[in-house]
């Protein structure tokens, strides 16, 4: 049976101490916000058996069961393990990856967020790092998963190119563009790439193949965080290659481990060392 003094052990097992003495919130491992019905049934049973009959959905798509008494932590943990559910991460670790439904479900999805999320989670979840490290995958520039608020963010993109000879000036693309990046005046179409966020909606809207895909893939953001000193992530690069995404993630983690002071988030390390230096190391 775990003792109150086994704080690190309890944390490792996903138990976060509550304000009430001897009670813990049991954090469970999730990835990308998708959980099976079996997972949900196991959570419901555990909440009844060890908690107060409810589970808390966290801001990062995680699930916690509050009010697990110290005396029940071991049983609760074993019970979850026997259902194939591991503990969630806290402290100086790579946290559970969050993701939207991406192109498996969402009409606007440009990439398979769940697939990337699963691969990252499998390789990196709960790996030790200088401080917390958060990763998010979002299917398009709508950024429902707020990749700019994460240490490492991946966003789907589709960049358009206008092929004038096919155009019949029907304005479908102009109407589809929420960024006012397309203007048709005097039978001439202007595509302003300074306004374009590469959401690909104009390509989808065009029925004459006059708005085509120039480039597509993943936009990578680094150094974002919220909390007491928020910082928006910097757009690092765009790539059409999934392997490059993993390569950049690996190099970013190497950079972080080598350069971070204890308890420093990636964005602060980038600010201290310089974005130029960071780019040199990872690109
Ligand atoms: S980010 Fe894009 S793909 Fe993901 S849920 Fe939002 S609109 Fe859909
Ligand atoms: S890709 Fe999106 S933002 Fe860019 S021009 Fe097309 S609709 Fe507008
Ligand atoms: S939707 Fe296609 S055909 Fe219509 S104006 Fe735009 S580019 Fe031209």
UniProtKB/TrEMBL annotation:
UniProt keyword terms in alphabetical order: 4Fe-4S, Heme, Iron, Iron-sulfur, Metal-binding, Oxidoreductase
Iron-sulfur keyword on record: yes
Family annotation (SUPFAM superfamilies): 4Fe-4S ferredoxins, Nitrite and sulphite reductase 4Fe-4S domain-like, Nitrite/Sulfite reductase N-terminal domain-like
Entry GO MF terms: 4 iron, 4 sulfur cluster binding; heme binding; metal ion binding; oxidoreductase activity
InterPro entries tied to this protein: 4Fe4S_Fe-S-bd, NiRdtase/SiRdtase_haem-b_fer, Nit/Sulf_reduc_fer-like_dom_sf, NO2/SO3_Rdtase_4Fe4S_dom, NO2/SO3_Rdtase_4Fe4S_prot, NO2/SO3_Rdtase_4Fe4S_sf, NO2/SO3_Rdtase_FeS/sirohaem_BS
PANTHER family referenced in this protein's UniProt entry, alphabetically: ANAEROBIC SULFITE REDUCTASE SUBUNIT C, SULFITE REDUCTASE [NADPH] SUBUNIT BETA-RELATED
Protein name: 4Fe-4S binding protein
Organism: Methanolobus zinderi
């Amino acid at each position: 049976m775990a003792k109150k003094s086994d704080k690190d052990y309890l944390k490792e097992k996903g138990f976060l101490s509550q304000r009430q003495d001897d009670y813990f919130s049991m954090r469970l491992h999730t990835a990308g916000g998708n959980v099976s019905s079996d997972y949900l049934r196991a959570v419901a049973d555990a909440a009844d058996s060890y908690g107060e009959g409810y589970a808390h959905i966290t801001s990062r798509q995680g699930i916690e069961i509050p009010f697990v008494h110290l005396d029940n932590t071991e049983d609760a943990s074993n019970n979850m393990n026997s259902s194939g559910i591991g503990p969630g991460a806290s402290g100086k670790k790579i946290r559970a990856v969050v993701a939207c439904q991406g192109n498996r479900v969402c009409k606007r999805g440009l990439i398979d967020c769940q697939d990337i999320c699963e691969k990252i989670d499998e390789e990196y979840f709960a790996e030790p790092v200088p401080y917390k490290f958060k990763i998010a995958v979002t299917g398009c520039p709508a950024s429902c998963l707020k990749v700019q608020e994460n240490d490492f963010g991946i966003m789907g993109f589709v960049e358009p190119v206008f092929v004038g000879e096919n155009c019949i000036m029907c304005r479908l693309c102009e109407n589809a563009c929420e960024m006012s990046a397309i203007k048709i005046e005097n039978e001439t179409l202007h595509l302003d790439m300074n306004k374009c966020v590469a959401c690909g909606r104009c390509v989808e809207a065009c029925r004459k193949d006059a708005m085509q895909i120039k480039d597509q893939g993943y936009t990578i953001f680094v150094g974002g965080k919220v909390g007491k000193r928020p910082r928006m992530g910097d757009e690092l690069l765009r790539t059409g290659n999934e392997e490059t995404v993993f390569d950049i993630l690996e190099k970013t983690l190497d950079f972080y481990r080598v350069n971070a002071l204890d308890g420093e988030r990636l964005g602060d390390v980038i600010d201290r060392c310089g974005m130029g230096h960071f780019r040199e190391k990872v690109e």
